[in-house]
Specification:
The complex is a heterodimer. By secondary structure, chain A is of the alpha/beta class. Helix content of chain A is 49%, strand content 15%. Chain A contains 19 helices and 16 strands. In chain A, helix 17 runs antiparallel to helix 18. In chain A, 46% of the residues are buried. In chain B, helix 5 crosses helix 8. Classes of the chains: A alpha/beta, B mainly alpha. Chains A and B meet through helix 3, helix 17 and helix 19 of A and helix 2 of B.
């Protein structure tokens, strides 16, 4: 702590001793990464509107957030309001660490993107208020596809495959037109969800990755490597993704909204107009090309002594002006659809076009299985698929092994279910 | 005369130390052993009635898990190749530094010791750049030699050698200092006597230096083996255990199970199995040394 920090803390101690009768109510908020920084700005208006309330914002880096959250829960030190990745909500519900927010959002429920809101719903109740939305779509080098004679972004898997093969033919055999990092589970999972796979069965107590819809999707994914359309060794080169994209080493990349800003910043000015975005291609015409329902929500801790005030703060942070401000400051896409009309989203035509693909995609997003074990299962999925991609095992062997792993991971869930049923 | 009644004052003297050991060492070790007999996990954190005592269940699951055996194989690879290599590099560096012809000794010693005191996380960034399959220094060297560059961290075959190289570079300085201290204790008159007997450089090293260094060797081998069996930071920052789990070590597995997935019962079992492995390996080393020295004597 800096000297001035110590002095300020001492002053506060003295002040609270003197003015204990009128001492301000304190709300503690945890924000992650960039949002943790901009939160200070966002809560200022709230403090003005609520005299006598002080909001203390603490910024937590994403990489440490999950561990810190669990440790704070065990230690009884959770803050009043927490920003969480919406895939963490099942875990917080299993811990019984958060309060339901159904009543609070009753009037604005329909304003959230349904797929995004759904990630917050578990056992018939809503546990978090969606803050910003996140999903994955197709980023591509429009100049390269146009030069190769590919017209428009691919709308179906067949068109996608045709476009990739065309790119490979025109660029020569060494070129792999799509970047699929082996460590990322998102793309294969999106493909499986698009095929209608549920990934788990028996009320999410057993793996179902070998089911026909999932298998078809994974086979398509694997095929991209077999045909040399994606490189197997791309995993270690991820640090250079922007350089490689600029150099045209790949044309297509499935990624999220944070790269709108990153690419604009990191690509050379000459390539300013060279890249575009498009919603995920769908497996067949008429079938929605769904993507992942990601993003972050705000939750109210069960341990809070000021549930009403904490709820008011969440309501403030998720109202339209604040969502616009969050977009301005951090580039986070609002989770409420009316904010997309209410705020000036994307400043010029080029940005608007790129962001519009996210708007289209957010109408069709789906949650991954809502259980605390999901992330662990996803890492097993990347492992077994990697073995199949490398050709160490066949796809069927890999999926059978994956289902075995998942069944073992979910043993506790089966036991809990059986106990509840008694 | 020995006092029969009352408390032996020795207890008063060792008491505080024993109390600290009991609270901060014996207690936690016992607690984590008990933990390893349960399935303590995320569900049990909130409600203890969701905890099951499963006896040796974690140990059975561990021994039946291919991931655990993969981690054991990787760790053994690292210890068996990296350990001797690291010790050899340390010894060579120490011998070179000890050579009378070498100038600037304190400076060279400091430079060679620097990797030991630098932060691994910072060093890892540099090494990741060195290992980069297209832009890295090693890739450039390979191209100069007309060899296809190796994707060091992305190729299952080369990932562990890459980790070993990094670990040897990072750690050899410490053992080098230990060897240097050992070398300085070799009496000059022994060398003189050997020289008078007509012994060349190699016989002098083999029959004078090495025997005098034997106790130093014992210390270095045991500490290096124990340290290398606990391989964690290098794969954690460089590869996260990949590619295809070829750099997954026992401690990395324990970390993932315990702190990433919160399976503390299972992670505690991993810790105890690792403890048993270290105990057996160290015991075997001590035993071998005893047998060996007896034979020599």
């Amino acid at each position: 702590m800096s000297g001035s920090g110590v002095a300020a803390a001492l002053l506060l101690l003295v002040a609270s001793g003197v003015a204990s009768a009128t001492s301000p109510v304190e709300l503690r908020v945890w924000g992650m990464g960039r949002e943790g920084e901009v939160l200070r700005d966002l809560v200022a208006v709230f403090e003005e509107a609520h005299p006598g309330v002080r909001v203390r914002v603490q910024q937590i880096p994403w990489s440490a957030a999950h561990e810190k959250l669990l440790t704070a829960f065990v230690g009884g030190a959770l803050p009043d309001v927490i920003q969480v990745g919406n895939t963490w909500i099942p875990e917080l519900v299993a811990l019984d660490a958060v309060l339901p927010v159904d009543d609070q959002i009753a009037t604005i429920r329909d304003d959230f993107f349904p797929g995004i809101l759904d990630t917050n719903v578990l056992d018939g109740r809503t546990w978090g208020v969606p803050w910003y939305a996140d999903t994955r779509i197709l980023f591509y080098r429009h100049d390269l596809t146009a030069a190769a004679g590919v017209d428009g972004p691919p709308a179906t898997w067949a068109e996608w495959l045709a476009a990739l093969e065309r790119m490979q033919r025109s660029a020569g055999p060494g070129h792999s037109p799509i970047l699929l990092p082996l460590r990322e589970w998102q793309t294969p999972v999106i493909l499986a969800l698009q095929r209608g796979a549920t990934l788990l069965r028996d009320e999410a107590t057993r793996g179902d990755f070998a089911s026909p819809p999932a298998r078809t999707a994974f086979d398509f994914y694997l095929d991209l490597f077999r045909r040399g359309l994606a490189r197997r060794d791309a995993a270690t080169q991820v640090t250079n993704v922007y350089q490689d994209f600029a150099a045209g080493r790949f044309t297509f990349y499935v990624t999220g909204p944070w790269n709108l800003g990153e690419l604009a910043r990191r690509l050379p000015p000459a390539l300013e107009d060279a890249w575009r975005t498009a919603p995920m291609p769908s497996p067949a015409p008429g079938v929605p090309g769904v993507s992942l329902a990601g993003g972050a929500s705000l939750v109210v801790s069960r341990s809070t002594t000021e549930p009403a005030l904490a709820g008011a703060l969440v309501a403030h942070l998720t109202d339209i002006p604040m969502l616009c401000r969050l977009y301005d400051l951090a580039g986070d896409l609002p989770a409420r659809s009316s904010a997309w009309n209410g705020c000036p989203i994307a400043r010029d035509g080029r940005d608007e076009e790129r962001t519009a693909a996210f708007w289209t995609q957010l109408q069709a997003v789906r949650a991954t299985p809502k259980i605390p074990e999901w992330e662990r299962i996803a890492t097993r999925l990347t492992h077994h698929l990697e073995l199949a991609v490398r050709g160490d095992v066949t796809l069927d062997v890999a999926l059978a092994a994956l289902d075995r792993d998942v069944d073992a991971i979910l043993e506790k869930r089966r036991w809990l279910r059986a106990r509840e049923a008694e | 005369m020995r006092r029969r009644r009352g408390l032996d004052p020795a207890w008063l003297l060792v008491g505080p130390a024993l109390a600290i050991l009991a609270v901060f060492f014996a207690g936690p070790v016992l607690a984590s052993f008990v933990l390893s007999l349960t399935d303590f996990d995320l569900y049990a954190v909130a409600r203890l009635d969701r905890l099951r005592v499963i006896g040796a269940g974690n140990y059975a699951a561990l021994l039946a898990s291919p991931r655990f055996w993969r981690a054991v194989r990787n760790t053994a690879y690292f210890v068996l190749v990296g350990g001797p290599l690291s010790i050899a590099v340390s010894l060579v560096a120490a011998l070179l530094l000890d050579a009378p012809a070498v100038r600037w000794k304190p400076f060279l010693r400091t430079v060679l010791f620097l990797p030991v005191v630098t932060t691994l996380v910072a060093v890892a960034i540099v090494w990741r750049a060195i290992y980069h399959p297209r832009a890295g220094l090693l890739a450039w060297l390979c191209t100069q030699l007309g060899v296809t560059p190796i994707d060091w961290l992305g190729d299952p075959v080369w990932a562990m050698p890459a980790i070993i190289l990094l670990a040897v570079w990072k750690n050899f300085g410490f053992n080098m200092l230990v060897f240097l201290a050992g070398l300085q204790s070799v009496p000059e008159r022994l060398y003189e006597a050997a020289r008078l007997d007509g012994a060349g450089a190699w016989p002098r090293f083999r029959h004078v230096t090495l025997p005098v260094l034997a106790p130093t060797f014992g210390f270095v081998v045991v500490t290096t083996t124990i340290g290398y069996l606990q391989l964690f930071a290098e794969p954690y920052v460089m590869t996260q255990g990949g590619p295809a789990e070829h750099t997954l070590s026992i401690v990395l597995l324990m970390y993932e199970e315990g702190f990433r997935w919160w399976n503390l019962g299972f992670a505690a079992a991993v810790a105890f199995v690792l403890f048993a492995i270290i105990l057996v390996v160290t015991g075997a080393q001590v035993l071998l040394r005893r047998i060996f020295t007896r034979e020599v004597a």
